[in-house]
Amino acid sequence: MKNLAIIALLAMLLWFGSAIIRLERYHYASMLGICERKARPGQVEQQRCLNSIETRTGPLWHLAYGLGIV
């Protein structure tokens, strides 16, 4: 039972970590104005831009900034 709880908690940490990375990527791209130059707010093109843009060197940097470590 204890091992099942540990596995469930690790899965939740991965899930929350991926959400933090995605939201920090969106936040940083909008702060820099990257996608606003390519499309107007609310358009499908802007959503595609936000989903495809990589603003920092990797996901771990997004996680570190999102958690306030860096």
Order of helices and strands: HHHH
Distance between the termini: 36 Å
Strand residue percentage = under 5%
* Average pLDDT rating: 84
Largest sheet: none
Provide a descriptive summary of the structure in words.
The protein is mainly α and 70 residues long. The radius of gyration is 15 Å and the shape is elongated. The longest helix is centred in the N-terminal third of the chain and has 31 residues, at 2-32. It has one domain (2-67). The protein has 4 helices and no strands.
Summarize the topology.
Elements lengths: L1 H31 L1 H5 L5 H9 L6 H9 L3
Provide a compact summary of the structure.
This protein is mostly helical and 70 residues long. The protein contains four helices and no strands. It has one domain (2-67).
Key attributes of the depicted protein:
elongated; 0% strand; 77% helix; mainly alpha; 70 residues; single chain
